[in-house]
Amino acid sequence: MSSEDYGMAMKWAIVASIADLAQLPAIKSFGSWLAAEITSEARQLGTQLILEPMPSLVTNVLVGDIGGNCAAYEKMHKETPGVQLVVHILPHENSEEYNWMKSLSARYGLIRQGILLENALTHFEGNEKTEVLRNIIQWMARRSAELARGKAGHEKPFDLRVGPDEFLVKTKPGMINDAMVKTVVNGVLHGTDAGDADSSVRVAGLPHGMSEFQVASIFRNLSVCGVSIHADEAVVTLKNKFHAHQAAALYNKFQLDKYHHIEVVPLSHAVKEQIKAV
């Protein structure tokens, strides 16, 4: 991967439901090939999607072993919490593993991609590769949006700061009302007090089409509580003003790719002054 490429490549893992462990090396090789092909095709489409060249974790599970599947996803969650995508190798069509993959990926907030063992071993031989890759990319983008916005029944709690820390409001994306949105937008567009300004930054210069999930991934080393996108800019709310300070100090002028350098500026005047003083 070029140093000019998007620096926050997506981490991914492989869960292989196979009966023959001798096939595992071929599956690992397929995974790396798939990651490179997805990255290349996404670039052709102008989409900001880059996968790390190697999986963070590869684990095999016996076919038909529901307990093994649960253990594999739990291990992934505990040992490689940065993983966002799981590539699950399925033994055959209409397998129980497909349903387990869906439920377990939902439980741990993962993007899932099931691949039939036969297709993995042949690298999709007999299929139109470009069509397969584009379908995968479209699905990943859709699933990313679901995770970022909180699809019905699978919402994750977000913090919307409408005042000092003691007035922190616990809510969900679907529950944010017009008054809350207006407060944040006014703070960004008109310079009025947004309430959560101490813990928020404005991110400008983003590539067109980035999702909330992808924007949050830029600051994966910090605690991101929420993201709101407006055109090619975003407001990112972090855990507290110290995280906002770090976000601006570490990521202002950060090079996403050879075409995009982002500008990260605190909404709080006090935090701005602290950065200047360093």
From TrEMBL:
Signal peptide: none annotated. GO terms for molecular function: nucleic acid binding. One of its GO terms (cellular component) is RNA cap binding complex. InterPro entries: RBD_domain_sf (IPR035979). It comes from the Eukaryota. GO terms for biological process: piRNA processing; positive regulation of cell division; positive regulation of chromosome segregation. Coiled coil: none annotated. This is Uncharacterized protein. The lineage of its organism: Eukaryota, Metazoa, Ecdysozoa, Nematoda, Chromadorea. The gene is WBGene00304314.
